[in-house]
Amino acid sequence: MTLSAATLPTLPADVHTPVYERTHHAPGVVHLGLGAFHRAHQAMVFDQLLAGGDMRWGIHGVGMTRPDLVNQLRAQDGLYAVRVADGQGVQWQVPGALWRMNVAATERDAVVQAIAAPATRWVTLTVTEKGYTPALGQLLLDGLRLRQQANLPGITVASCDNLQGNGHKLLALVKAAASAQDGAVLLWLDTHCAFPCSMVDRIVPAATPEVLAAAQEALGMPDHCALSTEGFWEWVIEDRLADPQDAALLQSAGVRVTRDVHSYEEAKLRLLNGSHTAMALMGAITGRPFIASCIGVPHIRAFVHRLMGQEVAPHLSRSDWADYRDALIQRFGNPYLKHSVHQIATDNSQKIPQRWPPSVLGQIAQGASFELHALAAAVFVRYTLGVDEQGQAYPLNDPQAERLMALGAAQRTEPEACVRALLAREDLWGRALPQHATWIARVTHWHQQVLLHGVDAVVQQGLAQEA
Ligand code: CS2
User: Fold this and answer.
1) Per-residue model confidence as pLDDT tens digits over 201-216
2) What is d(CA 346, CA 344) in angstroms, rounded to the nearest whole number?
């Protein structure tokens, strides 16, 4: 007997379970991207709203590509356990907000119908950086067009991916999918729908066998979809919602609804995600499997602390960055989160543009040092070799994997040409950095050092130089 609606009442009393009736209402939220993050973040916020008696927050969850995950969740009636664990304690909880499930790749029409369903009030998205494709714009537009034609109310469409100005990007994508016949839909979309920007934050690693075993232990039965996360979570959303009354509701569940999402977005992308990428690459090359193992190394910890304080913070509009940085270093060290460095290094080509170049450009504009970012970029170049310092090979999981590996392959024989070729890519670094001679020279310098002395020694060198 696995976890399911039938076995829910038999769970141990210390596991928090949904106290509301899960089957009597139609979902009010369609969520695209049913990965670990959504299930341990927003699905738990909506679970709180449901527990408060507002039955409009059930989720119709859409896996974009993976039928295996959706099938497992279906077999468990959308139920899964989340271990919330950090220095404050350990608690298991089964959120009950996931009511229906589909796979976009194979059940597209069901997804379009879900967006167009009368009960739907929100569409939320966590489809990852590489998910912002014309096909996504078309999917949303097809659902929204049906709503408009049926005279249904407009909805809030909230991108929750790690992209700056994510709401604007999503709206542009939907509009780009429109054809000459779509004038009425576009007008309706502008007047009745809202595409707020939002910043979401919670560290939710992909589940490991260890977490599944811990779930079995805690629940007294198997749960093939169990997850592990930290106590901390944050959701900041722009106060631009199709139904303005949702603002107070979300706030009651701990969401921050504000005019100014921008300052939260940029701080999170550059401090949290930017450090994540730097540590993930260092960990991958030095053979340290988890973020906690990286931040536990004094020189990596010092590197991340300085990267944030010296090269990122000066360009943030969020004034409480020092507290944020210190809290982040604590969170990275959470021993319960086995957050794989290779998971974070996935899709580097899509992640680096948001995470590093804005800080480098900020430093350049102020005539300040960007050595720590140059060192991190050198570590990225070294990473494209696909083999760690112990000679262990690892795969590059990236839509650009082949090209990155082709460019990186010759770095042992022609290091300078290699660095130049990788730094010339405007899709990674933007327009200005590929032209910046000092940036290129400094990355080339650190890259040579990394090849000669290894990542650990070079991180220590970098710290000594920037002290
Ligand atoms: C991570 C994020 O995988 C990654 O690229 O940096 O998933 C990170 O854990 C979340 O954004 C935290 O909110």
Assistant:
1) 999 999 999 999 999 9
2) 5
